[in-house]
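Worked Example 4.2. Consider the chain below.
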Amino acid sequence: MDITAILLVGIAASLFVGFNIGGSSTGIAWGPAVGAGVLSKTAAAGLMTFFVFLGGWTVGRNVMDTLSGDIVATSISLEAGAAVLFFIGLGILVANVFGVPVPTSMTTVGSIAGLGLANGTLNFDTIGYIVAWWIVTPVIGFWVGAVIGRYVYPGLNRRFEIKTTDGQLLELDRSGLVPTPTYGPNTTGRELITTAVVLVIGCYMAFSAGASNVPNAVAPLVSSGALGENSGILIATVAISAGGFTIARRTMESVGTELSDIPLLAALVVMSTAATITTALSYIGIPISLVMAMVMTIVGLGWGRATRPIAARDVVRGHVDTEISTGAITADADAPVGSIGSAESPEVLQAGNLFNPRAILKYISMWIIGPSMALALSYSFFVGADLVV
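Applying the procedure from the previous section yields the following structure tokens:
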């Protein structure tokens, strides 16, 4: 097979990987905003495309350097790069079969590490450094979420009600010579501000997804020198965008429902925290899964909300019920799933009502199985096929 044909096969594999990344990442970034009726799925996919490109073009270059040059001591050949992308795509396929958001960054590292292990060029210091952050990141996400859920979220929930009104948010006033935007018939100033916050956080999540995931789709080809870094970023953006406009439409409807009974305000807290962790690690070149930070922040937030003790001032002010049963933990009430209205009356919260332990176990299992399977298959293939240069 000539070089052009191999490159085309590699680009096809890259497009497949990026397409599936777009399907999962768009749902994670824009599911809460779409569910709240803040914007349409098409508008969400459009914003996703722009900010994914921005994240990949800027911070994503640091991750690209790690994946294409630091994990193995030599450049990845074009043939090997195409094969690596195949194993990344296979890992995505397996995760999709189990219905788990894809740990793409971890699968990518596992596939490249299998190549390095096969030809003896694996940089164990770099792998150890990356894996150490994979262990630390869930802990950071959990405890940040726990602290917010226990000490910060109750106050936010009382002070900031995120709700929408009927009718359009903004309208054009055509009474003058130049049409000017004005409030819709029922729009309030608070609604306009909270809508803007939801949009900003969604854009931030999309930027973070681009920084961490754009390199996953093209780094093996960039390492070979057959594809330039700028061209690779453009190809990955197109593929992620295609996934966002198509298969992500369903995930935007369902994101978050399996993991936690989570209202919009809590979702925004989780998204902001996860995006910050992911962007920071991407900046220092660590391939990290956005889903990992997000899931563990949800768990921490739920645990923090469920274990918050009652303060005397809350009872005096009427923020909680005074009737407390033994072993029950009373916390500030939150709106139900998908609700963006005001909070309900105070209720007793148990940790099991705030996140699904079985779902968490499934996610963590895939974080271990995904990269391990990618490493084992990649190693076996490159040893057997003698494609190690």
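Residues 320-351 have pLDDT under 50 and may be disordered. Strands lie at 170-173, 180-183, 330-331, 347-348. Compare this with Example 4.1 before moving on.
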